[in-house]
């Protein structure tokens, strides 16, 4: 074995401790911690920054494959960009072995506030690699990974696992796995109350989440509930019913990043801010910008002809021209930029 | 154990716990009633390099090559010394004309990522309705494109985009929008 010649940075010092945030929000803010969950392709920097303007405590990056991140500079460049205001951020990793995980953390941890292992992704390509939801059926490996990380970093690194449930209502196997994870030092667990095969159109199983929260009372490990959070009322109901310390929304914030700020419908200002951040940070492929706006417009019930035209724009310039032709889209120097709620159609 | 695995060092096979054997079998063999849902428990071949065996769509096993310590340290060094960590993009980082000029002069525009970076500057000027600066920068990019070898088919979308924005900027300037 070679002697190490590279001095690596330690995990981010003076971080915004996400564990402290999750544990304390009920006492300090009278509500659970609010969390924007990881979404493949979508949770990039402009979207994360938009979420932060609307009462979201913690934001996740999209899942990054550890195998690619530690082997390929191009993958690192396209997967992860950040800046000083991008905090608290949890970087989510898809991984199927201890070595890749430790190396991934060594590279990424100095730039984020915590690392989350994805044990919930049901995409078949990942399952075949033993990544994502496959890990909840491979408890030995998952526990071994958490143990290895916590033995190396202890409390200097926050480590989360985001899991799905094995069975409905009283998922005993899931509870057993969670207890094992707590024993080896996981900092918090996010539970998506669906099975690997449950479609998102089926309601989330809050009883199963509550079963896990109740079953882990003896451990000082907070639980975050994930699934079917689209409004503040949903958040309150989920937290009250399950007893979870935090509530995570993914599809909800995709269509309405302002949901945790009490907006049941995406406010217009949110679109303005998102476009502004896309322009300022750069790097987001045009098709993604277009799809983000489509999701927000769908939530805002913009009429279908406009939606069709939106999807026909071919590049950022056409998109900006179209937005300016249909809506009164303000820039940061304009009065009321990012503040208006109703859609400001241009009067013809 | 299959002969394919013979000779691998540090062989460690994840075992399916007997307690959950029946449900695991259903999951691992994809018998959950939903097609294409079979899962893999990766088999660690070499724990020092992260080499594992996973299952392909066809059911055949596939080796995911490991990364030696030397290869990893090379990446780590590149990450710290060349990449200087992850890309950092604060508000205003695309606002500088000097930065645009130096990027235009130094970046290899045959690399798509570099061309997209330059377009980031143009997007920002266009968004902020700074059409004169935008048009000037587009002209410079267009001149630069003429000096590089590129496949017209591959870059068609980018060239069309450039033409579109130049026409729009000219119209806005003519109409006195800037």
UniProtKB/TrEMBL annotation, chain A:
Leading EC class: oxidoreductase
Domain of life of the native organism: Eukaryota
Residue span, DUS-like FMN-binding domain: 35-318
Record's keyword annotation contains Oxidoreductase: yes
Gene Ontology biological process terms in this record: mRNA processing
GO molecular function annotation: flavin adenine dinucleotide binding; tRNA-dihydrouridine20a synthase activity; tRNA-dihydrouridine20b synthase activity
Gene3D superfamilies (alphabetical): Aldolase class I (3.20.20.70)
E.C. designation(s): 1.3.1.-
Keywords (A to Z) from UniProt: Flavoprotein, FMN, mRNA processing, NAD, NADP, Nucleotide-binding, Oxidoreductase, tRNA processing
SUPFAM superfamilies per UniProt: FMN-linked oxidoreductases (SSF51395)
UniProt xrefs under CDD domains: DUS_like_FMN
Residue positions binding FMN: 38-40, 92, 192, 250-251
Active-site residues from the entry: 121 (proton donor)
Cofactor(s) needed: FMN
Catalytic activity reported: 5,6-dihydrouridine(20b) in tRNA + NADP(+) = uridine(20b) in tRNA + NADPH + H(+); 5,6-dihydrouridine(20a) in tRNA + NAD(+) = uridine(20a) in tRNA + NADH + H(+); a 5,6-dihydrouridine in mRNA + NAD(+) = a uridine in mRNA + NADH + H(+); 5,6-dihydrouridine(20b) in tRNA + NAD(+) = uridine(20b) in tRNA + NADH + H(+)
Keyword Electron transport: no
Family indicated by similarity: Belongs to the dus family.
Role noted for this protein: Catalyzes the synthesis of dihydrouridine, a modified base found in the D-loop of most tRNAs.
PANTHER family referenced in this protein's UniProt entry, alphabetically: TRNA-DIHYDROURIDINE SYNTHASE (PTHR11082), TRNA-DIHYDROURIDINE(20A_20B) SYNTHASE [NAD(P)+]-LIKE (PTHR11082:SF31)
Name listed for the protein in its UniProt record: tRNA-dihydrouridine synthase
Natural source organism: Maudiozyma barnettii
Lineage start: Eukaryota, Fungi, Dikarya, Ascomycota, Saccharomycotina
TrEMBL record, chain B:
Domain of life: Eukaryota
Name of the protein: Uncharacterized protein
Originating species: Maudiozyma barnettii
